[in-house]
Write a structure and sequence with these properties.
single chain, 291 residues, alpha/beta, Alpha-Beta Plaits, Rossmann fold, 8-stranded mixed β-sheet, 9 helices, 16 strands, globular
Amino acid sequence: MKSADLRWPVRVDSQAVADRVLAEVWAAGALGVEERAEPDSVELIIYLNLPSESAVREALAPFTGYGLVVGEQEAVSDLDWSQAWKEGLVAIEISPRLVVRPSFVEHALGPGQREVVVDPGQAFGTGGHESTRLILEWLDVLVEEGAETCRVLDVGTGSGILALAALKLGAGSALGFDLDLDAIREARGVVHSNGMTERFELFAGSIRCLSSGTFDLVLVNLLRTEMLPIASEIAETLGPGANLVLSGLLEEDRSSVLEVFAELGLEERSERRSLDASGGVWISPLLGFPD
């Protein structure tokens, strides 16, 4: 990571708003963000350099109506920055079969336990957010050891963590894509460091760039506004008996999302939920075509 010049604390009133702020400040050039959830708010410590300060300020402006409180900027030394982004990051036990950890955190694996090693960066997905963790929990249930014929599609792959977890748990192959070229570059590094280059294909582009073919397990961790415009294309990727796992959704998104997929012939099979520190409820529906 590049050296940061400034540390800029901001506070918002919910996890949902924090997630949207994160996306905007990354796009504006932030170098790193610490997230500190509290009972009634979320504090974000944004690290940036001087040239990107005005762009980050503009990115924050639309959130003034969502309880945004902007603190004072502080200068950051190279020594401060080299350690600050690591603070609070730990190994995350998803299940007795799966753990996610940063490369600089040691963790003793249990019998038969697999690990995905991923460091935080600009590509979304390190296992700590509710939306990511919900899908990881689904994978522990859906992917069996030795499922070599299982083909996985990761829509909006980010860091690649979801498809990597599926491969580590036993899936045979995976394809991931993202609109963000920087995310794909980062994901390729993560895939390589996890020893999955031969089984995990990546490309930068939209779902409309997919060639013909279907998948056994499709993973979609996107905001509702990003998911619904491509719902029909997502449905077309499902093979016979395939599972579709959705995430990135709040409870208030549930009815509108399920209605769109129901119109495409998909039914809800089950659902997982998680409560964040600010009281927001994140959901992850499991969908499929009727047998």
